[in-house]
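Re-run with default settings, no changes from the original entry. Doing this only to confirm the output is reproducible before filing.
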Amino acid sequence: MMGYKSLVDSQVTMAFNLLKDLADDVILNKSSDVSFNFGDASTSQKTEQTVIKAVVTDDDKKSQIHNSIERQVMFKTRGLGDINAYDSLTFENSHDIHLNGTWKLGPVLNNDGYTILASIYREVSSG
């Protein structure tokens, strides 16, 4: 007999599969072993890449404070571990060509243990 946690996880997987072209295959660049060098004020980190399915809101929100655009993204959490501000998402063949490129993860807006809803942002190219 399947436990409730496994049942919910399989239903979340099925929901992402039913989204078809609304969900993109995205590379999660997960940073680990982040260290700070006080001598030259630099950081170093190791990055582990994982392909995940993600759904992104359609509209860009331009920041009035920073030169960046922001969107929201939802993805499954199973097997990903902790998500933090050092992580990023890379879109390569998105259904929305404006998404292609690397986006930094912002604040996690909701984490129910099965999915994460988070802000993502990137700098606006000038010119």
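The beta strands are 23-37, 42-56, 61-62, 68-76, 88-91, 101-111, 115-123. The chain is about 10% helix and 50% strand.
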